[in-house]
Amino acid sequence: MTHSESRNPASGTGKSAFVTGASKGIGLAVAQALAGAGYAVTLTSRTQAEVEAAAQGIGGQARGVVCDVRDPQALQRAVDAHVDAFGGLDVLFVNAGLGHFANVEDLTIEQWQEVIDTNLSGAFYTVKAGLPALKRRGGYIFTLSSLAGTNPFAGGGAYNASKFGLNGLSEVLTLDLRQHGIKVTQIMPGSVATFFNGHTPGEQDAWKIQPEDVAQLTLDLLAMPERTLPSRIEVRPSRPPTK
């Protein structure tokens, strides 16, 4: 495991966040927003150069860590290093995900396993790694799901299954953890202008939800009164193109 860290971290709020899949897209936007709000942030990605560049671009108390969420031991090491560096953990943003899309006949076993292992098992491993630290002082878990977690579509066998499962896991986490002072919110976006599935965002994506919109939503949820939990948030483009 490697990381990059600013030599002159800002004092911040004394709070910290751990964001998976944060070298670009929604994860990066969330990490940037949290850092701007005074959080020390660890970003993870499977690609060293990308995650280190992302952390350096944020600056301050931002660390870029190479970590594959399919590896529970690697996740535990990454979270432990985060807690050692920042003294605790307040926000866990479970974002890492990918998709393979094909009808069930053509979807390979390997593609199925990669999607489920990343999007669903990886979320479980991330939460397991972060729970001891979160329970010590309460905190917030965000799971980045999708409208595909309630709306199946042809060719979405693996992706739909992973997001339906993630929604179920998130709802159970809410029930399991609420008495420990830990909030859990599943954020379910529709079309977002990201690099997901090899897409390159451009002007053609102006109608879509932007990553910074999800980041703003995250800050808004963190600002909610302690007594109130928006447990599931569906997010759609306000004016998609007509077909």
UniProtKB/TrEMBL annotation:
It holds the Pfam family adh_short. One of its GO terms (molecular function) is oxidoreductase activity. The keyword Metal-binding does not apply. Residues 15-195 form the Ketoreductase domain. The keyword Nucleotide-binding does not apply. SUPFAM superfamilies: NAD(P)-binding Rossmann-fold domains (SSF51735). Keywords: Oxidoreductase. NCBIfam families: PRK07326.1 (NF005594). PANTHER family: DEHYDROGENASE/REDUCTASE SDR FAMILY MEMBER 7B (PTHR44196), DEHYDROGENASE_REDUCTASE SDR FAMILY MEMBER 7B (PTHR44196:SF1). This is NAD(P)-dependent dehydrogenase (Short-subunit alcohol dehydrogenase family). It comes from Deinococcus budaensis.
